[in-house]
TrEMBL record:
It comes from Singulisphaera acidiphila (strain ATCC BAA-1392 / DSM 18658 / VKM B-2454 / MOB10). Residues 370-430 form the DUF1595 domain. InterPro entries: CBM60_xylan-bd, Cyt_c_Planctomycete-type, DUF1585, DUF1587, DUF1588, DUF1592, DUF1595. The lineage of its organism: Bacteria, Pseudomonadati, Planctomycetota, Planctomycetia, Isosphaerales. Residues 696-769 form the DUF1585 domain. Residues 256-345 form the Carbohydrate binding module xylan-binding domain. Residues 586-683 form the DUF1588 domain. Pfam families: CBM60, PSCyt1, PSCyt3, PSD2, PSD3, PSD4, PSD5. Residues 141-204 form the DUF1587 domain. This is Cytochrome c domain-containing protein. Residues 445-569 form the DUF1592 domain.
């Protein structure tokens, strides 16, 4: 089959040529066989595929020959083909694309190709969608960092992103919520332990009653302007003024003691008044001297807060008959102010998190109250009813802490910390029913369905409404109503952030670094505006329930002044984003600066990255990785012609041609946008040529015409988005047996105006989302 391309046939995935309709002239993709179609009316593998393979393929991939590490002649029957499904799926797509046999080999007739495709496809897609079949299962799945933060927020009421210090989550199938790659390392478990302690320290108040203490106020000073002097044994007042001191006190009753003495001159004793925050507390005579000061004690009620204590001198006097300044003035000395308390403190005002978590029936013995708290918290944390035996195990932590003399609140907090590192909290666990036979499919429980729904739309735990519906067995019946309710909730912003952020790969924008010399106008404000535009655009498709085809060519978007200036759109001022009608040279996500920037190199555009992004994210037909011996593309400093010319020379190399002929034409359609997504007419001194021709001969001039071609094949984009969304919703990669579910989703989508709400509703109603195939291993 492949005499001259020393390649990669065994690694080749689906070819975009056929998926875009770029078929070999006269050869169409075979229709799916009708359910129940008789064997006698359908081409068979042995009678129809084997002769085709013998004539056109075995010369390179048979009789011991393994061009591209691919040998086909060992699979002689349908069982062998099903066993090596991945290989034969690649073979099928390459025959469809016209890449097998290669161009330098005799070409099979259209009829031969059609019959061979039907025969191979009949084996690979032998699914009776009307019958019960494998619906797959999700690997035990750990909460990723986003899900952990959001779940803690909704469970505990503490929103400070405790997972910020966790190791990064691995990515599978383009998403970071895939069960197969979410492992639990010893380091991460240590982080969980630390986080659990920190979270509950913030949520639960354990030091509930202030301990009475005796405190001496320090920092006593005279008020500004008061007459005062200092002697060896302290400061004194000789005119009207006050001694003042401040301190913070909890609410309660206090014993307040003031110690003072005076220098008596004249007929009256030294007189003073005690005030707290300007309020008169007690007026008193100071008759004592330094050796025996006057002491007063007053019971006072203080409200919590910072208080100012003042002792004010009321009756200064100077004896006019005495000229000795040390002895002719009435003086007030303050020895100190002391408080003892608080006593009779009111019940503490607990934060809302404490009140919600620690609520229990009044009058219960401590351990029973603790068990009530733990049972309720664990049920919410585990997203299902908790079993008595599970609570018994958790309460052992309470008993241990109580024996060590810990207070009630500390004992309960320790148990709840245990809940936050329990497997049923950290993982989304789904168990087969005890009577489920291996290989049979069954509906997941309503509680499991509630978790699937909430983590799909909110990246967080089910709320009380979902859990109540699950408890009453009514969630399935209310599924579409709940979908609409949940999308109206502010928590659905997580769907935009996490699904759109990863499907469109705009999360990577944070790590893109355009060259500062080449693009001095790029800054963090522009980066942020780029990201926000794409988020708001996706959100508008969700909120307004628009057609998913608007992702390709909508004539509107969202900009602020910074982004509008970058786009060359006058008349927009301010940091606020607003909806605008786009100029003719923009439309759809393909012309968003976020996408164009993250698919560029630091100093120049990359038609390869841009073309590959379309294949990966919009058509779900990723090209294979380049072979290890592929020639390197010239560095920027070695470019001596236009980028298009240099890449055409690169594409002439046999190792490069097969992949680049699919990626490059798409990427060149966007060459009028520089590496930061700004419009340009020239690349240096070279005029931009955004034209291209697809393998089927169709030509286009720029992105608008290419988007028209893509929209004309809407089923390709629709299937891609449906598969991406189902992958994200399920947390697993799709398998061949998911084809029936995807086909059903697409049928409903096509019949309802391609609206995004229909796509999302069909995803949550699909068999893979609603059901699970048993293995019989868990119990």
């Amino acid at each position: 089959m492949d005499q001259c391309d020393p390649g990669r046939l065994a690694r080749m995935l689906g070819a975009v040529i056929i998926i875009l309709g770029w078929t070999v002239p006269g050869v169409a993709a075979p229709p799916a066989p009708a359910v129940g179609e008789g064997a006698g009316t359908h081409p068979s593998f042995s009678k129809d595929a084997i002769p085709f393979l013998s004539k056109h393929c075995y010369a390179c991939h048979g009789d011991g020959k393994q061009k591209g590490d691919l040998s086909l002649d060992s699979d002689r029957d349908e069982q062998a083909v099903e066993k090596n499904r991945k290989v034969w799926e690649n073979v099928l797509e390459m025959i469809r694309a016209g890449e097998m046999p290669p161009k330098n080999r005799p070409r099979p007739s259209t009829e031969e190709v059609e019959v061979a495709l039907l025969a191979i496809d009949g084996v690979l897609n032998r699914l009776d969608c009307s019958q019960t079949r494998n619906v797959g299962r999700v690997t035990l799945r750990r909460l990723n960092r986003v899900e952990y933060n959001n779940t803690i927020r909704d469970l505990v009421g503490v929103d400070f992103k405790p997972a910020a210090d966790f190791p990064n989550d691995d990515v599978g199938y383009g998403f970071d919520n895939i069960g197969d790659v979410l492992s639990l390392s010893p380091l991460l478990f240590e982080k969980y332990l630390t986080a659990a302690e920190t979270i509950l320290e913030q949520a639960i108040v354990t030091d509930t009653t202030p301990t009475p203490t005796k405190s001496q106020l320090g920092g006593i000073r005279e008020t500004e302007g008061a007459g005062g002097e200092k002697r060896g044994f302290g400061r004194f007042l000789h005119s009207i003024g006050s001694f003042r001191a401040q301190g913070y006190f909890d609410e309660g009753d206090y014993k307040l003691r003031v110690s003072a003495f005076g220098q008596q001159v004249g007929d009256q004793p030294v007189r003073a008044i005690l005030r707290i925050n300007g309020e008169d507390i007690q007026e008193f005579d100071v008759t004592g001297d330094r050796s025996s000061p006057t002491k007063i004690e007053q019971q006072v009620r203080i409200k919590a807060g910072t208080k100012t204590f003042a002792v004010t001198f009321l009756n200064p006097y100077t004896d006019p008959k005495n000229s000795d300044s040390d002895k002719n003035r009435r003086l007030l000395f303050l020895s100190g102010i002391e408080l003892d308390g608080p006593y009779n403190s009111p019940p503490p005002v607990f934060p809302e998190t404490h009140r919600r978590i620690m609520a229990h029936q009044p009058g219960l013995p401590a351990r029973e109250a603790a068990r009530e708290i733990v049972t309720r918290f664990a049920a919410r944390a585990f997203r299902r009813p908790v079993q008595p035996g599970e609570v018994d195990r958790l309460m052992k932590l309470y008993d241990k802490a109580e024996l060590e003399g810990e207070r009630f609140e500390d004992c309960v907090r320790l148990v709840l910390e245990g809940v936050l590192v329990w497997p049923d909290f950290l993982f989304r666990i789904e168990l087969d029913p005890r009577d489920a036979q291996p290989g049979t499919s069954y509906p997941v429980s309503e509680y499991e369905l509630a978790s699937r729904l909430s983590y799909f739309l909110w990246s967080s735990m089910p709320d009380e409404t979902l859990l109540t519906l699950a408890a009453e067995g009514r969630l399935r019946a209310e599924l579409e109503n709940e979908l609409r309710r949940m999308l109206k909730d502010p928590k659905s912003a997580a769907f935009v952030e996490n699904f759109a952020g990863q499907w469109l790969t705009i999360r990577k924008l944070a790590y893109v670094a355009p060259d500062a010399k080449e693009f001095p106008g790029f800054d963090e404000d522009l980066r942020s505006a780029m990201y926000r535009e794409t988020e708001l655009f996706f959100e508008s498709i969700v909120r307004e329930d628009r057609s998913i085809l608007d992702f390709l060519d909508a004539d509107y978007s969202f900009v602020n002044e910074r982004l509008a200036k970058h786009y060359g759109m006058p008349g927009i001022e301010g940091k606020e984003f607003r909806r605008v009608k786009l100029p003719a040279n923009r439309g759809g996500i393909l012309t968003h600066a976020s996408i164009l920037t993250l698919t560029s190199n630091p100093t120049r555009t990359s038609p390869v990255k841009r073309g590959k992004w379309v294949l990966d994210q919009l058509l779900n037909t990723p090209p294979p990785p380049p072979p290890p011996d592929v020639p390197e593309f010239p560095e920027d400093k070695r470019l001596t012609g236009s980028l298009r010319k240099v890449m055409e020379m690169h594409r002439e190399k046999p190792l490069c041609a097969s992949c680049h002929q699919r990626m490059d034409p798409i990427g060149f359609a966007f060459e009028n946008y520089d590496a930061t997504g700004a419009w340009r007419d020239k690349d240096g001194t070279f005029l931009i040529d955004p034209s291209g021709a697809l393998p089927d001969g169709r030509s286009f001039q720029g992105p608008a015409e290419l988007k028209t071609i893509l929209r004309g094949k809407k089923e390709l984009f629709s299937r891609c988005l449906a598969e991406k969304m189902l992958t994200y919703a399920m947390g697993r990669g799709l398998e061949y047996y998911d084809k029936c579910a995807v086909d059903k989703i697409l049928e409903a989508l096509n019949q309802n105006g391609d609206r995004l709400s229909v796509l999302m509703a069909e995803v949550v109603k699909s068999e893979p989302f609603q059901m699970r195939t048993a293995t019989g291993e868990e119990r």
